[in-house]
Amino acid sequence: QVQLVESGGGLVQPGGSLRLSCVGSGFTFSTSAMYWYRQAPGKEREWVAYISTFPGTTNYADSVKGRFTISRDNAKKTVYLQMNSLKPEDTAVYYCNRQGYWGQGTQVTVSS
Hints:
The protein is mainly beta. It is built from no helices and eleven strands. A hairpin with a 2-residue loop joins strand 9 (92-98) and strand 10.
């Protein structure tokens, strides 16, 4: 069965960086577009970033453009989200997604 397992969240100060990882299994990772979403307390889940299959075209929500970078390593069946210049408003549970399947999420808290 499809499984997505996120990791890498934590507490970071404003302006700091984190790298999230999501390992996929139970499907052909290399031929799957992958997404990152997030859900802040009291808010709806929102799309953050997208990466296609080869050649790995990317797209970002305006709120993270220029600060976040999505990438993938097909050999490791892993998609990453590098988050720089973090802001308190980036605080949320971050989820990996592939065609309707979700991971369990990883908490990111940006606070001084």
